[in-house]
Amino acid sequence: MYDVLVIGGGPGGYAAAIRAAQLGGKVALCSFGDMGGTCVHKGCIPSKVWSRAAYLLNQIKQGATFGLNATLGDTNYQAIVERKNGVGADIKMGMEALLANNGVTVVPGKAVLKSATKAEVDGKAIEAKAIIMATGSSIAVPDIPGLADSALTSDEVLDLTEMPASLLVWGGGPVEVEIASWLNTFGVEVTLACEGPRILTCEDSDTSQRLAGALKEQGITIITRAQLIEVKKTADGCQATLGGKQEQAIEAKAVVIASRKPNTEGLGLETVGVELSSAGGILVNQYLESNVKGVFAIGDCTGGRMLSHRASGMAVFAAENAMGQKNIFDERLICRGLWTMPQVGSVGLTEEEAEEMDYDVETGDFPYPINGLAMLRGEVTGNVKVVMDAKYGEILGVHIVGSGATELIGEAALAMQLECTAEEVARGVRLHPTFSETMVDAARDAMGWALYLPKR
Fold first, then answer.
1. 30 CB-contact burial (10 Å; exposed 0-12 / middle 13-18 / buried 19+)
2. Where are the beta strands (DSSP E) in 39-150?
3. What residues form DSSP beta bridges with 230?
């Protein structure tokens, strides 16, 4: 019998297996598909290869500002696809080697639960004292007339070897927004449409507005408060009918979709009695344990924000708890990020969420246009916003739009993890010129003594 059986070989399952093994556990990992899961092969890594290529293209176009008059040739999209495949393969190989190095037994195939301590893989029974579900998520095509026949999934977008003239990206979430950004950079006429009142409804409204403004300036058409009524095939692609205040038809080569659902079907969860949310995710407590003792769940299969680093972060806690510890996972400290141009980084509560929770909210802001590094690099679109509890100075959330945001947000997450107050961050000193100075300046503004902003 194993101490821990991990079901799923994505970033969550992989990390959980290694952490349990580090604690002296006898561990088995059952993986259905390539090691690394969506993150390595269909999500984080391949999408960031595309985002990097788009960023470099944009930098080359701006070279004349610095006296660099470069001539652009044709873009080799096949080479981009080959690079993202190659990077994914390298990471997969490294993951497999580390699992072996840590003594984890890898069992290929799909596992089905038979009890809280037993699973079956291709007719073979595997028993364990604890089980960690890390089965991830998969594409969910909305049930809209004609959409399935004209849909281009986020998986398929990553394998494009030529760019269509136009695409309708349906949805205003982070994945859809990021895809729209780099498609636009490669010359695709992009329409980004969503049902919500704004893109990125799960983020701070200021973040949404700033990024939407930047994307519109770059040529992306954004339509909000819309309903995708139907999609019809045409000779050149498709026609999507959008409802809202005024019905309109959008002509495009295809409709890009990136919506996902937790992978919880066909796993025997109902046999064991594991409870699911209305969205199909596995319900877990603060220890990441389901309602069935000894059955834990992490990552996308629990629903919520589907982020690979959330899965790997949960993995550490689930593995430790499966091995007998009682550690509480803090969802607040999970960062969010978009590799758009400009980037987005956020952690903690939005201003709206903090107010709904009856905090006495104070905010501090610092604009990129007066940051030295942003000015000299010509990357002045952006802002850092600190959301603070005015009573105690507790940092409730940080929201960044701007170059380097996905790296800078880690500093904010660490400050929150260590329970730094805004005053303590405000008294910090950062290397100059850097983007990290904006964190200090925004904290100073929250405290009411910003040095480089006009008096309030």
1. buried
2. 105-108, 111-115, 118-121, 124-133, 137-139
3. 241
| Verdict on whether the full-model pTM lies above 0.85 | yes
Residues 6+ apart with CB under 8 A from 390: 359, 360, 361, 362
Alpha-carbon span 255 to 241, nearest angstrom: 11
Residue 30 has φ and ψ, to the nearest 5°, of -100, 120
Q: Please, are residues 363 and 386 in contact by the beta-carbon 8 Å criterion?
A: yes
Among 395, 287, 295, smallest CA distance to 347 is for 395
Dist. CA 449–CA 437, nearest whole Å: 15
Enzyme catalytic residues: 432
Give 419's DSSP letter: T
CB atoms within 10 A of CB 128: 23
Q: What Cα–Cα distance (Å) separates residue 450 from each residue in 139, 365, 427?
A: 46, 9, 11
Which tokens is 233 given? Answer: 């095939």
H-assigned helices in 284-360: 308-322, 351-356
Angle of CA points 112, 113, 119, to nearest 5°: 85
pLDDT by residue for the chain (456 residues), tens only, comes to 999 999 999 999 999 999 999 999 999 999 998 999 999 999 999 999 999 999 999 999 999 999 999 888 899 999 999 999 999 999 999 999 999 999 999 999 999 999 999 999 998 999 999 999 999 999 999 999 999 999 999 999 999 999 999 999 999 999 999 999 999 999 999 999 999 999 999 999 999 999 999 999 999 999 999 999 999 999 999 999 999 888 999 999 999 999 999 999 999 999 999 999 999 999 999 999 999 999 999 999 999 999 999 999 999 999 999 999 999 999 999 999 999 999 999 999 999 999 999 999 999 999 999 999 999 999 999 999 999 999 999 999 999 999 999 999 999 999 999 999 999 999 999 999 999 999 999 999 999 999 999 987
Pairing of strands 124-133, 237-243: unpaired
Whole-number Å distance between alpha carbons of 305 and 262: 11
Strand (E) positions, 122-252?
124-133, 137-139, 151-153, 166-170, 189-193, 221-223, 227-234, 237-243, 248-252
Tell me the two tokens of residue 414: 């660490």
Q: How far apart are the two ends of the chain, measured CA to CA in Å?
A: 65
